[in-house]
Amino acid sequence: MNTTNSNKLLVIYEGQQHWIPEAIAVDDQLLRDAFTPLCAELANADIERQPGEPIHIIKKPGKKGASCLDFLIVAPEEINPAVQMCYQMRQRQVVTGIDWQNAEQLSIQIEEAIASGTKFSHSINQTLKFLKASIPTSSVILEGF
Amino acid sequence: MSHLVPLSMAEAIYSLSQYQFTLDATKSLEYLETQLNIYSLLGLYQHYFPNEWKASQATIYSPTDIDCHSPRELEFIVLIYAHLFPLSDWTIETAYEQRLHSIPITPMGIDWTMDGEIEHLKDGWQLLLPFSHNGRCWLDDIDPEGSDWFDSEFAIYEITYSNIDHPDKIDYKKLKRQCHNLDNPLKFLPLTLKLLDHETKNLWLDEYADDYYHQPHCTSLPWSKASIDFLTRKWQQADRMLNCAANLIDWLEADLKPHAQILLKLWKQASKPR
Q1: How far is A107 from chain B (nearest CA, A)?
Q2: Under an 8 Å CB criterion, which residues of A touch B?
């Protein structure tokens, strides 16, 4: 297999071939930095080099939710249940006023919305905290991107 | 029944206030906390006092501010105080000015440790202080000497601080057995001493008040059936304990000199062997 191409080396990441300038490809850290924009978790990737073979860049299996990107991925996409319930209660009470006939049932629903809304806010705050704590890193823009 | 036309000015203002947008999570949670308080109190009122609810003419809308209880909610709080369990004067007054987001527990036990409280304690309770662990520690710690104070109060009844064996020297199993066989209110002595030691395992009696009148940091429970049932049950139990203790105190005070001697004799009999 031809692994060099006019001062570029062949790097394989998840089965896809990438021709990377030799100056970058020979240095593990530079190579990782070059691929980090593709996937943040590659910042700690393993690099496998064998004579005559393409370079393999392998994502390290990390702790779920440990990286900034993971936090973003697991961050909930729906509307905060507390905001949603607040809107529903306002809409309802415009028409009914205080709906005392359903007081018991409504208080259960509100309590649940407060619990899930608080959990939701906590999750969002964690993600935001992680984003704010992330150190900005410059990276090489890969050819073709 | 749901209706489209508000029936009062307060209801109209309430309905109009619902048109506000709340997109911020913190503000939504604040709004829901208030709504939870309103609906919990109204739901609990209907559950615990259905007849009073039906007969009530009080409005369910706060005439001034959503952050204050409505007259109907206040009615429920007063009914709790009248029929279920105690609420402090501070709690009742506060409820007229701001929402009670939880049920504050008013300490109802025997507490003499705050300034001036010892003077308000009945003679029978004062007499029992050195028989309890808490009372003994307190009398030993206060300056000037607590024992001098005790003797100045009770020497005329021929009972002095040094006559009373330290509670650590008492075999409580033996004391309990001896008291159990009595047919006078002295049988309530172990329970009464637990009250002084705040070891009754009843939250109404074991809680300490930082300040009897104003208790912003006291223990509280959420507005729920479980809390109200629990507090009512515990208060009934606490009330029985307080009555038993009051029985003993009244008996002691009825003829302090001979009854104090009977108490002292019983105490000495329960001493651990030296």
Answers
A1: 5
A2: 80, 82-83, 85-87, 89-91, 93-101, 103-104, 106-107, 110-111, 113-114, 117-118, 120-121, 124
b (16+ CB within 10 A) / e for B76-94: bbebbbeebbbbbebbeeb
Searching chain B, which residue's CA lies closest to the CA of residue A106?
B39
Helix (H) or strand (E) holding B150, with range, is helix B146-154
Give chain A positions within 8 Å (CB) of B101: none
| Interface contact A103-B40, CB threshold 8 A | yes
Closest-approach residue (CA) in chain A for B18: A90
- Compute how many other C-beta atoms are within 10 angstroms of the C-beta atom of residue B223: 20
Coil/strand/helix, residue A21: strand
* Burial A44-64, CB ≥16 within 10 A → b, else e: ebebeeeeeebbbbeeeeeee
* Helix (H/G/I), strand (E/B), else coil: A18: strand
Measure in Å the smallest separation between the Cα of A130 and chain B Cα atoms: 19
Burial class from Cβ neighbours inside 10 Å (0-12, 13-18, 19+) for residue B29 reads: buried
Q: Helices B71-83 and B25-48, interaxial angle, to 10°?
A: 50
Decide: B155 and B140 in contact? Cβ < 8 Å. Answer: no
Nearest Cα neighbor of B203 from B107, B132, B111 is B107
Pair type for strands A55-58 and B103-104: unpaired
Give dist(CA B69, CA B46) in Å, integer. Answer: 16
Contact A3, A10 (CB under 8 A): yes
Give me the tens of pLDDT residue by residue for chain B, a chain 274 residues long: 455 677 788 888 888 888 888 888 999 999 999 999 999 999 999 999 999 999 999 999 988 788 899 999 999 999 999 999 999 888 889 899 999 999 999 899 988 877 667 778 899 999 999 999 999 998 888 766 888 889 989 989 989 999 899 999 999 999 999 999 899 999 999 999 999 999 999 999 998 876 555 555 578 899 999 999 999 999 999 999 999 999 999 999 999 999 999 999 999 999 988 7
CB contact under 8 A, B18 and A100: no
Alpha carbon distance A96, A75 (integer Å): 35
CA distances from A16 to A13, A54, A141, B23, B28 (A): 5, 11, 17, 44, 47
Q: How far apart are CA B12 and CA B20, in angstroms?
A: 14
Assembly ipTM: 0.80
